[in-house]
């Protein structure tokens, strides 16, 4: 029970989201073990991550480099060394080093230069960095991601880089067009698996559309709001 609006019941929220994933898997003839839950903790404090980790959640996603690295360092120092960290925000080439040094996954690689830098900067004592290529499935101009026509070339480069492992594809669809874009990404994924057997991750679906994503084959749903609550828009002082 949530007794106090200021201390959300993470355990309830986590079981609700797991329940949604299980129901969608059941409905679409999939096993719920095929779909991993990535908890997107951007804008929320390390203490909220620790609370959700205390309920058994292990994979967390962050969008902003400095904010993410600060949380990773804080939580590792607090003994939470088993958590896995996924970078899911836009990545500029001058910010790749802290990502290569602290994260386990990057979902948003969309050009060769970023991939090369991540591979060069991945410390030797860590396992290779897991990579998803972010594909632009939308026709909207402002969206990040690479064009499907250049996907094969980038996948081939990433596969050759020694400190990266090509794991999958990711998309962030245009609102209202999710089913269509998820279906497109799955087609690309199935085709690419034939040349890249290491591909096992289809990163798609968020709080509002995880059922649609699971219907279309998602293996990793990235859920923020349904677990942590609504985010305060950047630049707005907290209420
Ligand atoms: C913020 C974010 C999410 C989580 O979105 P919610 O709607 O809060 O679940 C997922 N993926 C990416 C890339 C994000 O930036």
Would you write up a description of this structure?
There is one protein chain. With 239 residues, the protein is α/β, with parallel strands linked by helices. It is built from nine helices and eight strands. The protein has helices at 10-27, 46-54, 65-77, 96-102, 112-121, 151-160, 178-193, 210-215, 225-228, and strands at residues 36-40, 59-62, 84-87, 105-109, 129-134, 164-170, 201-203, 220-223. Residues 40, 42, 63, 88, 172, 206-208, 222-226 line the site of pyridoxal-5'-phosphate (PLP). Pyridoxal-5'-phosphate binds at residues 40, 42, 63, 88, 172, 206-208, 222-226.
Q: Describe the biggest sheet? A: 8 strands, parallel
Mean pLDDT across the residues is 94
Would you tell me the structural class of the helices and strands? Answer: alpha/beta
Q: Strands of the biggest beta sheet: in what spatial order?
A: 7-6-5-4-3-2-1-8
Give the count of helical stretches: 9
Low-confidence stretches: none
The ordered H/E elements are HEHEHEHEHEHEHEHEH
Could you give me the name of the CATH homologous superfamily? Answer: Alanine racemase
Number of domains: 1
Radius of gyration, rounded? Answer: 17 Å
Fraction in beta strands: 15-25%
Named CATH topology: TIM Barrel
- Quickly name the level 1 CATH class: Alpha Beta
Could you give the count of β-strands?
8
Bound ligands: pyridoxal-5'-phosphate
Shape-level CATH architecture: Alpha-Beta Barrel
What percent of the residues sit in helical stretches (DSSP H or I)? 25-40%
Cα(first) to Cα(last) distance is 24 Å
Q: What characteristic shape results from the CA principal axes?
A: globular
């Amino acid at each position: 029970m949530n007794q106090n609006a200021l201390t959300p019941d993470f355990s309830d929220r986590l079981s609700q989201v797991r329940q949604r994933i299980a129901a969608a898997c059941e409905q679409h003839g999939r096993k719920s073990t095929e779909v991993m839950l990535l908890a997107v903790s951007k804008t929320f404090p390390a203490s909220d991550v620790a609370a959700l980790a205390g309920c058994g959640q292990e994979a967390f996603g962050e969008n902003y480099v400095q904010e993410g690295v600060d949380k990773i360092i804080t939580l590792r120092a607090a003994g939470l060394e088993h958590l896995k960290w996924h970078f899911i925000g836009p990545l500029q080439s001058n910010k790749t080093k802290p990502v290569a040094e602290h994260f386990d996954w990057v979902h948003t690689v969309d050009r060769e230069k970023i991939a090369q830098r991540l591979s060069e900067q991945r410390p030797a004592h860590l396992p290779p960095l897991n990579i998803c290529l972010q594909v632009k499935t939308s026709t909207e101009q402002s969206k990040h991601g690479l064009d499907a026509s250049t996907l094969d070339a980038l996948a081939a480069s990433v596969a050759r880089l020694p400190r990266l492992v090509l794991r999958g594809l990711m998309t962030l669809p245009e609102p209202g067009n999710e089913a269509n874009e998820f279906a497109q990404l799955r087609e690309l994924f199935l085709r690419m698996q034939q040349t890249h057997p290491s591909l096992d991750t289809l990163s798609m679906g968020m709080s509002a559309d995880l059922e649609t994503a699971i219907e279309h084959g998602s293996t990793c749903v990235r859920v923020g709001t349904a677990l942590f609550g609504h985010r305060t828009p950047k630049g707005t002082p907290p209420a």
